[in-house]
Amino acid sequence: MKRTLLFLIVLMPFFLQAQQITGLVTSTTDEVLPGATVQVGKLAAQTNLDGRFTLILKEKGRIKLSIFYTGYQVFTLDTIVSHEGIHLGNIKLAPSNNSLGEVFVVGSSAGSQLKALNIKKGANAIMEVLAADAIGKLPDRNAAEAVQRIQGVSIERDQGEGRYVSVRGTPIQWSASLLNGNRLPSASLDYADRRIQMDIFPSEMIQYVQLSKAITPDMEGDAIGGSINFITKAAPLKRTLNINAAGGYNEQSQRGSYNGSVLFGDRVAKGKLGYILSAVIWDRTAAQDRYNLNYDFGNSNKTQAFSITYLQLRDYIAHRRTVGFNGGLEYAFNEKHKIMVKGLYSEYLDAQRVRENYFYFNTKTATITTRTADYHTNLYSGELSGQSVFSEKLGLDWAISMDQSSFKFKNPDYYPMATFSQKVSYEDMATDGKKYLAMDSPDGVGDNIDRILPHLSPSSPISAEAMKLTQVVNIRSKNKESNKRAGVNLKYTPNNSLAVKFGGKYIHKDKKVENPYSIYVAGVSGPAPTLASLGTEPYPYRGGFLTEIGSPYDNELIDQISMESVKQLASPAGIAGNKLYPFRVDSATNASGAANYYSGRENVYAIYGSAEYKLTEQFTLIAGIRNEYNKVTFSGNKVSTLADKSTHVEAINQDNSYNAFLPMLHVKINATKNDIIRLAFTRSFARPDFGNLNPGTVQDDINRVITRGNPNLKPTFASNFDLMVEHYFGGIGMVSAGAFYKKLSNLIYSNQSTQNINGIMFNVNEPDNLQNAWLAGFEAGISKRFTDLPGIWKGFGIDANYTFTDSKATVPRFDNGKLIEDKSVIPKQAKHLFNVSLIYENSKFMARIAGNYKGKYLDAIRQIAGPEHYRWYSSNFSVDFSSSYAINAKFRLFAELNNITGAPVRYYHGVYDRAEQAEWYSVRGQIGISAKLF
Question: Which of 238, 308, 791, 808 has the highest CB neighbour count under 10 A?
């Protein structure tokens, strides 16, 4: 049946005709102009992202058609429309005869900003837009960094590079990251949830980014925060060849970098067949210096709950390489029917080399852990789609697609870690024998933020001769997620005042996670080798360690084992040669590892219907309903520790199916030519994370503890209310302000509870749903080019935006059997977001300095300890710089700098001065050349 339907859809272009006015709007330099207004009398339409438009007329005969686009001269045409309709071909607009037209034509980024403003202005929903050429003018090398300056968007970084995207300060999983309208698959070592690792996706492959803050019925409903759609580059209108090459340097790692990209596209067969091919590579070495503190917050003694159990010093270096390929093919049977193919492949290598020094104050030991692995993550996506217009009233588009993301280790195919340990003595401890910060110490003895030292006794210095191997750990993790989809949309337009859409989408998702450990213990089957006997290499590396705070740990750091020696030690020969005892070797069937293997299958059946009704020229209403039925099945293992200390593994399968009914209403009011008011009510949801749905259970009958996932988790639902007011200056610029409120139900959190099994009370740790919560805020932004000013001043411009978000949730916990309900903000929700960019641009030169601020947010709830022990992310402000110089019309030099201020990333325990984690990345930059040969 599916094959027959697809066959009929493909053949339809040959048999069906349509009547309407169509055309393509570009500049005289063949730049597509999306968002242009095409008008005949009181009837109007906007060009789409491809620059194409369709206008339906009530009457035939002579008409006067006008096209308006800021920065360009108005285009007018007198023509006659017959019953067969008319295709106007490629209409080219000439630049305005004023300063705005001058800036637009010669500027290297003004045009892209104008495109984004026109698309935003013409949209019926609350939307932000970023165009490809704007992405290329900022020092942003991956998809996450490309969108961080959009109003209401923030990112989380890994080793100084953007990785995850959040909208309006909401948790990352609440924002849908889409590739050409489809949610991207997710696979990584660190998380088995729905957050998308955006650093595997190069920014050079992006044509447009559309951020929908209030979704419409034709969009996937799993998007409480918003929907970020990355649209890959499509076939150009004419032959195009772009080449970029650059080299750079990372101050923290003191190593170079390079990146390059090439794009070629053309149209043949009299313009009916278009294609595009692009490739990109970015090779660099990231680095991080960091310290961590762990507090004894589970201690029942209120004072000792703030004592420090250990200090960790981490030196991290990672050779990273991102490679991407993108291809697109488009064939137009005629002006009304076309078929398209898109494909993308991206590969991300993260070769990590990590050295960690631990100082355990309660056990009076010090350890050194060295680990090395090549993280390998890839993503591929393919889509076949088509568009058809059957009459002046009826149109259809369809798509079938598949994508996959997978993670595994390479070189070797596991993650080896070697740990050495020795006994030590610590000085400057409190009278109770504990280690504290001075602010928490019962007698005032302790250290302060960024100067937290182990205070080793001279009688027990750390040495390679005293450090003995304690264990070797091998992690063999794999994570894969794949999707298959089919979707169709039917649009019926009886007149220019009403457009009705119906559609559906089927999504089949498979998820498979394996996370087995193997632990080999030294000193059991034979003597444990010392660090000295295995050989060492100089440490710290060039650049030193934590020089940003004065290198306070130089006296505690010694030369360490080489990375190659760690690989050899963890190999079968190394384990046998050093007589390491197999303390734990996980598999899918034994008790230690069974719960770390699980798989899931998710089928989504989505249908929607919506109507766009233009009550007047100023008032447009969009109403509709989307329904998504989700059938989820997970397979895992339950591991029980029986009273006789034996273990039992039981395979379990569970179903978690639910329905999401999502009504939506949007109102757009064109108060004046340049003033728009938008209102929206939408219903959206967030699916439970895969890791939380894992039905694997570990039951310890001896300690009476149950640890498990929760395949019965309910999705989080949100009723969203949005208001946005926009004023367009008429040139390149606008100012906007808005407010939003989200009423939340079934918020997912990590729950600690009790359960009675056969008269025995067990403590249970599992994710669960909170009943109710809310999130609200407001945002404001301004984007302005001062083209009306005289002389040099007309080249200046500013982009600035601010978002405030607040929330409340009730978090239950038990204290000596008594239920306590703590009021808290929602985890991962930042209260303040702020972006500002200052730009100068003329016919040859462009310079931009951009600042990005993300306020503090609650990172982790610790129910047992209470709010004063919660983990918080500290506010962060980073500054970037970019500039370019046009040698001529084809060649441009550019320079980029990231993190100019060297801003650290910090986490703290309750209050800012009680540090939990602080890390530094320093500055990175590059210079290069860009060529547009044709």
Answer: 308
Strand partners, 854: 833, 876
**Total-model pTM:** 0.85
Please, where are the H alpha helices in 59-153? 99-106, 110-122, 132-135, 143-147
Terminal C-alpha separation, the chain = 46
What HEC string does 471-520 produce?
EEEEECCEEEEEEEEEEEEEEEEEECCEEEEEEEEEEEEEEEEECCEEEE
Q: Are 926 and 894 in contact (CB under 8 A)?
A: no
Rounded Cα gap, residues 656 and 713, in angstroms: 8
Per the CB < 8 A criterion, the answer to whether 85 and 21 are in contact is yes
Is the preceding omega at residue 540 within 30 degrees of 0, hence cis? yes
| CA dist., res. 611 & res. 218, Å (int) | 11
Tens digits of residue pLDDT in 442-476:
999 999 999 999 999 999 999 999 999 999 999 88
Q: Which residues contact 144 (CB under 8 A, 6 or more apart)?
A: 155, 161, 162, 163, 164, 165, 198, 199
- In tens, the pLDDT along 525-580 reads 989 999 999 999 988 876 789 999 999 999 899 999 999 999 999 999 999 999 99
Q: Give the separation between CA 697 and CA 710, rounded to whole angstroms.
A: 9
Q: Which residue has the tokens 């300690």?
A: 703
For the chain, helix, strand, coil in percent to 5 are 10, 60, 30
Evaluate the CA torsion angle 542, 546, 549, 554 in order and state its sign.
negative
DSSP state of 335: T
The CA dihedral of 113, 114, 119, 121, to the nearest 10 degrees, is 110
Cis peptide before 412 (omega within 30 of 0): yes
Nearest Cα neighbor of 851 from 778, 799, 907, 796 is 799
Amino acid identity at 794? K
**Cβ(293)–Cβ(308) under 8 Å?**
yes
| Torsion region of 143: left, alpha or beta (phi above 0 gives left; psi -120 to 50 gives alpha) | alpha
Q: Between 491 and 237, whose confidence is greater?
A: 491
Q: State the Cα–Cα distance between residues 734 and 721, nearest whole angstrom.
A: 23
Around 117, how many Cα atoms within 13 Å sit in the side-chain half-sphere? 28
Please say whether the beta carbons of 607 and 503 come within 8 A: yes
- In order of 662, 716, 770, the CA distances from 767 in angstroms are 25, 13, 10
Distance (Å, whole) CA 527 – CA 833: 56
Render the burial of 770-793: b for 16+ CB within 10 Å, e for the rest.
beebbbbbebbbbbbbbbeeeeee
